[in-house]
Design a protein that fits this description.
Layout lengths: L7 H12 L17 H34 L6 H27 L18 E8 L3 E8 L7 E6 L20 E2 L3
Antiparallel strand pairs: 1-2, 2-3, 3-4
């Protein structure tokens, strides 16, 4: 019989077998059911590390498919280009908020945002930027005459999409139909 020195469970099993007892009567510490706050913490940590990323990925994919369907995106390259522009503008919102937290104002140029780069084939331009707000537009060669826009905070002239002239509510990306 192989013994694990220093292991509490192995020692308990060895003592019970010497006494003629049954090791199955005394539960192993690893198999004791958790109750109360400890069980709550365990399940919450398992959810956060294992399940939450999967739930977000599944929900994000479903929302992306629904969003593409509501905007009239055709399957193929145009839907991918629309998703790329939308994603780039959403990441721009986050990057500009980080910039503002550090510099007490919004960036006036995309190149000032460290770590931000638009997707291949997408051009993102900050149309206007002040200390209290900014507006941006994304265009791609895959969808000529179409664009996506976003505005955050107070903007004197919010950007408009190229084809339909739509403007966006605060921090919401709006695109022309593909």
């Amino acid at each position: 019989m192989r013994r694990h020195h220093g292991s509490e469970t192995a020692g308990r099993v060895a003592r019970l077998s010497r006494r003629g007892g049954d090791a199955a009567r005394e539960p192993s510490p690893a198999l004791v059911p958790l109750r109360g706050a400890d069980a709550n913490k365990l399940w919450r940590s398992l959810y956060m590390w294992l399940l939450a990323p999967m739930v977000v990925a599944i929900a994000g994919g479903a929302a992306g498919a629904q969003r593409a369907g509501t905007q009239g995106a055709a399957p193929g390259a145009s839907a991918g280009a629309l998703e790329a522009m939308t994603g780039d503008l959403r990441r721009l919102v986050s990057a500009n908020e980080v910039y503002r937290a550090k510099n007490k104002r919004y960036a006036a140029d995309v190149s000032a945002l460290t770590g931000y780069a638009p997707s291949r084939g997408v051009t993102v331009t900050l149309v206007s930027a002040t200390a209290t707000g900014w507006g941006a537009k994304a265009v791609t060669a895959d969808l000529p005459g179409k664009s996506c826009v976003v505005a955050v905070g107070t903007v004197v002239a919010p950007p408009k999409t190229d084809a339909t002239g739509r403007t966006a509510p605060d921090a919401v990306v709006v695109c022309d139909p593909a």
